[in-house]
């Protein structure tokens, strides 16, 4: 795969990451770690909200089509979109379901995995800061105890 194609894939993923964050998790709920997005807010509008969410979710699918994602990946995306749409139609619990299911984030992750597979790269993993800091503290305590005993 050439460098130009790699850069195009990366640009699509960066754009979809921003879009997914905006639609699925851009607004923090005070005093919790939970985040919702614009799609959950728009979903509160009776009748129109779920249709707007459906249209927004189509953007990720359109981008997958543009980069040539496989039929299997696109079918999984359509399934996620339909689950999100139908779940959002449920009275009372539908809006909560919309906030939790996060179809755009799921679909962006599906496309990312597919593109990384095409690029023959492993997805970048986040550095495990909390275990690292915990081990640093543990080793510092062990070192202090050993030094105190000597």
TrEMBL record:
Transmembrane segments: 40-62, 129-149
Phosphoprotein as UniProt keyword: no
Keyword annotations: Membrane, Transmembrane, Transmembrane helix
DNA-binding as UniProt keyword: no
Entry-linked InterPro entries: DUF4112 (IPR025187)
PANTHER family: MEMBRANE PROTEINS (PTHR35519), PH DOMAIN PROTEIN (PTHR35519:SF2)
Protein name: DUF4112 domain-containing protein
Organism listed in the record: Alloalcanivorax xenomutans
């Amino acid at each position: 795969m050439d460098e130009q194609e790699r850069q195009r894939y990366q640009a699509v993923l960066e754009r979809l990451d921003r879009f997914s964050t905006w639609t699925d998790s851009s607004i923090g709920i005070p005093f919790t770690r939970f985040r919702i997005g614009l799609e959950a807010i728009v979903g509160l509008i009776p009748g129109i909200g779920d249709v707007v969410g459906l249209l927004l979710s189509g953007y990720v699918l359109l981008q997958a089509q543009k980069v040539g994602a496989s039929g299997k990946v696109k079918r999984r995306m359509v399934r996620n979109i339909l689950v999100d749409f139908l779940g959002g139609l449920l009275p009372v619990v539908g809006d909560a379901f919309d906030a939790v299911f996060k179809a755009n984030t799921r679909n962006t992750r599906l496309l990312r995995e597919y593109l990384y597979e095409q690029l023959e790269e492993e997805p970048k993993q986040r550095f495990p800061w909390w275990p690292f800091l915990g081990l640093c503290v543990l080793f510092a305590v062990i070192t202090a105890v050993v030094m105190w005993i000597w």
